[in-house]
Amino acid sequence: MLGSSPAEKAHVEILPEPPGCYSLLTVGYPRTLRLGTREWHHGSFGIMAVINRTPDSFFDRGSTREFGAALDAASQAVADGAEIIDIGGVKAGPGDEVTPAAEIDRVAGLVAAVRERHPDVVISVDTWRGEVGEVVAQAGADLLNDAWGSVDPRLAEVAARHRIGLVCSHAGGLPPRTRPHRPAYRDVVAEATAYVTHHAERAVVTGVSPSAILVDPAHDFGKNTWQSLEITRRLAELAGTGWPVLVAVADKDFIGETLSISGALPVGQRAEGTIAALAVCAWLGARVFRVHNVPAARAALAAVTELQSAT
Length: 311
Fold this sequence. Notes:
Helix content: 25-40%
Order of helices and strands: EEEEEHEHEHEHEHEHHEHHEH
Strand order of the largest sheet: 10-9-8-7-6-5-12-11
CATH architecture: Alpha-Beta Barrel
CATH superfamily: Dihydropteroate synthase-like
Shape: globular
Radius of gyration: 18 Å
Strand content: 15-25%
Number of domains: 1
Distance between the termini: 20 Å
Largest sheet: 8 strands, parallel
Number of helices: 10
CATH topology: TIM Barrel
Number of strands: 12
């Protein structure tokens, strides 16, 4: 666990009443994030390592498709310092159809195996489907990472029923696994902030614990490069709502396009840009970082912590 942003702003805090019921109260401090057996208070960072059981992941090109390779990669990530393991069974972008049954087959057994091998690690599953969420929650998942903007309201119901966490994201209204075509916003930051906070509050009404909800502006999901850069520059506005912010910027297209004079740098050449984006997001108040390279992320976040402590 690493140090974090100094920003503190008033926000709406939702305090527990009986199980599954919450009330609103305005307070002036950021909320504590609680997932599984872990806690992240204001002033700490969490690292989420990506493990994809897909043959066509844009980053690893299927290197962890096989069960054993995926389990070993999860263990290595934990050894490197990851506190959250994010398991995915469907490529985010366009590609071959993956049915709910096939997605479950890819991820549920791995969730159970990671839980058995690493009892205290937080296990997240990257899915937008309620039926997948139900199975992985039963297998031991602590967090449902919905990157597609709450297209299936059953996912929040699953999180509430199993008392686990939920990520509320902004994908610009796109259906899952589609790319944006000339996305247009009057103010992308304001719209993303309003959308994710609305869905976070709806999740609370559904019964999800407010201390187990993260919001994600979802760089590159329903956004072009300029819009993802604007989200990054103004991330403090989202962090200022008080909801813990997850960012998933690692090796994404907006970084490749930003670093290239023409076109985009290949995925394997985006490491330096990734670290720069992580550091900026950390400085501006992000709490959890979804990454491919855990040691590099830890080093960057440790540097941000020291710089902040010196100010």
